[in-house]
Amino acid sequence: MDVTKSCAMRPLTDRTAGCIMREVETQSQNKKRIQDEPNVIICICRSKNEKDVMRAIENGASTIRDLQRCGIGDQCGSCHVTLSMMLAEAAEAAAATSATPCPACTGVNAEPALAMA
Predict the structure, then answer these.
(1) Counting Cβ atoms within 10 Å, is residue 14 exposed (0-12), middle (13-18) or buried (19+)?
(2) Which of 44, 68, 84, 89 shows the greatest Cβ crowding within 10 Å of its Cβ?
(3) What is the mean pLDDT of residues 18-23?
């Protein structure tokens, strides 16, 4: 079998690169729009805005499926990219606030490890 004909081995074409760049730009624009307009509608089908989504996330939603159980994003799915970004940002913020720095970073001396005999 010729591996050069495999889909995984095909070089990235200008068309494919263009599609990827447009998707990245769209996600970036969506993120900026949400930051600029705090009450923007995220889920058009269910008329849910950013505050509704953030309230669900604060109440424990951590996946798209969790949000769907709250009545957000359970219709056409066009909001899933934005919802995923919001979930990722919330998880990142939670991890940053709950992370405990290591003793070496804080200057606290850790107890020496016990030597195994």
Answers:
(1) exposed
(2) 68
(3) 68
